[in-house]
Amino acid sequence: MLDRDGYRPSIAIVIANTRNQVFWGKRLREHSWQFPQGGIDPDEAPEEAMYRELWEEVGLSPQHVRILGRTRDWLRYHVPRQWIRREWRGNYRGQKQIWYLLRFVGRDSDINLRMTEKPEFDAWRWHDYQVPLDAVIEFKRDVYKSALQELERFLYRRRGANHGNAKRDAEEQAAEDEGEQTALV
Q1: pTM
Q2: Which of 84, 102, 117, 182 is surrounded by the most beta carbons within 10 Å?
């Protein structure tokens, strides 16, 4: 499903442990690293897609994480023509993503990269929050940088501080997402 500008709606997930290190996944049979991400299915809210992708790519369920925050707006990246499937050329430009920052409250042994027949990653590690962007495929680097800068404020927020505001912001953003999802159909 593409929006009218040729972008596929999707989500990206930054999972932070209690030491504020982030989950860094190595793409299957490649030398690039990235955060979990995936498309939003028709009639699926961004948060629902986030939990589905979290399960499919990392094997974690809602009990293993807490949502700390998310980007306020869609972040877009263009996919170079040579990376676009032939049948999509002419219509597809790239992805627009809502990024989520999650606090991992489970154990490392809860992480399972083999939840589906087509795993996304073949290895993972915890990495400092400021991940090495040169390990990310070039056309996604600016979006990674923007997302990490925007989400960082949630990482260091004291527990309980601005709790009511964060909840209200999340509810307002969810209402906006529902309206945008409806417009895409």
Answers
A1: 0.82
A2: 102
